[in-house]
BFN domain-containing protein (Pyrobaculum oguniense), 153 residues
Amino acid sequence: MAKYLKAELVSVIEAIDSQGQVIGIMLISAEDWGDKAVPIIIGAAETLSIKKGLGEVEFPRPLSHDLFVEIIEALGASVEKITIDALVSSTYTATVYVKDKDGRIHSFDARPSDAVALAVRVNAPIYISENLEKYAEDLRKYLPPPSGKIAEE
């Protein structure tokens, strides 16, 4: 059975792919990975939704993830946690765990971008399989260095 590590969404950044299309790169890091994170390519719509869930952008109408959270909560359920599980045929997999009003936990297969978009809205914990560390990359490849740092010569 896979072991999971407490993780966090470090950032979601916009990029341009080789065909000139806007994409997102979701950076997920585990507590003990240091300055490394797994970069997961996501769509432009999912990037917008995650940024909205984080309060980084405004959008006048509810997005699909907002609606889903409202429905879950109206039914007396809650998102308990999400997991980033595996890389299968170049596609990352995730699971959303929902507790119903009777306390039962239900698991749902999900895209990592959808799972994270839900988690950031309800402050649900994110976990990542420790097996995915081999796909983690240096964050400096994706994020600028913190301001105020003087580069070493």
